[in-house]
Amino acid sequence: MTTKIIMDTDPGIDDAAALTMAINNPSLDLKLITTVAGNVTVDKTTANALKIVHFFGKDIPVAAGAEQPLIKPFEDAARIHGESGMPGYDFGTDYGKPIDKSAVEALRDAIMAEDEVVLVPTGSYTNIALLFSEYPEVKSHIKQIVAMGGSFSGGNMTSAAEFNVFTDPDAAKIMYNAGVPIVTVGLDVTLKALLTADTIEKLGKLNKTGEMLHGLITHYNDGSDAGRPMHDVNTIFYLLHPEAFTTKDMWVDVQTDGPAIGATVGDVRAAYHDGKTNAKVCLDIDADAFNKWFLEEVSKIK
Ligand code: BDR
Ligand code: CA
């Protein structure tokens, strides 16, 4: 049985790798890709999503989304992902166009067309917050949200905040309080499951997809030569191999102002919300299994 998914993304090198895995795994049926400003501006994240879809010769619709966060001024991460957001591989100039619908309209239509769909955001959650505000009826059609973002062990923007949540904390707060089950795939796991130098070297020799990903990853300014985090890919690994993760159910909320803006805060003792939870938080991961799976997945492509 296949799982129907929708990815909301800001490619971005690790987003590109996550799209690669989602597009090519036969257990996943990727219905729609929506884009958001994040790692680079939304015109670039949209072009980059289209480049990946075109690289694999697929006909998956891409809809362009929010140009900026709900309230907070936009800050990109080009220092990590390069000015284009996807340097290191020449995708050419012929990669098509986004569909003639906004991300929010496309999300609404795609979600309402299914009884059950999994939403996989790997950028900031602006499109999702707008969607839930404008079309709350979609919520009952979403089985779960498997979201890269947040941290319960220190941030990568400030000591408290992870990039996707920091980029649009107001949207993150809306998403966490929407009443839809969320799996939080944050830095607690993504910084443990580093792609090792050995994995990256082997990747480049596998096939055309491996060459493409190797080109991108060797232009990625996150991590170090000892290992590079593939944050967003952990969402797809979770969907396919939840047994590789240690999780804890808790109530999660988001700080939207002050020095800890963008921090995700978990009610770790279930003390403040009458024992209710809104998220399954990934706290540990089998990093060796992630590296092994990553290479195996790519070796099956082309
Ligand atoms: C997140 O920030 C982005 O730079 C990555 O693509 C990932 O989604 C990690 O904090
Ligand atoms: Ca991302």
UniProtKB/TrEMBL annotation:
NCBIfam families: PRK10768.1. Gene3D superfamilies: Ribonucleoside hydrolase-like (3.90.245.10). One of its GO terms (cellular component) is cytosol. PANTHER family: INOSINE-URIDINE PREFERRING NUCLEOSIDE HYDROLASE, NON-SPECIFIC RIBONUCLEOSIDE HYDROLASE RIHC. This is Ribonucleoside hydrolase RihC. The gene is rihC. GO terms for biological process: purine nucleoside catabolic process. Pfam families: IU_nuc_hydro (PF01156). One of its GO terms (molecular function) is purine nucleosidase activity. Keywords: Glycosidase, Hydrolase. InterPro entries: Inosine/uridine_hydrolase_dom, IUNH, Ribo_hydro-like. CDD domains: nuc_hydro_IU_UC_XIUA. Residues 5-291 form the Inosine/uridine-preferring nucleoside hydrolase domain.
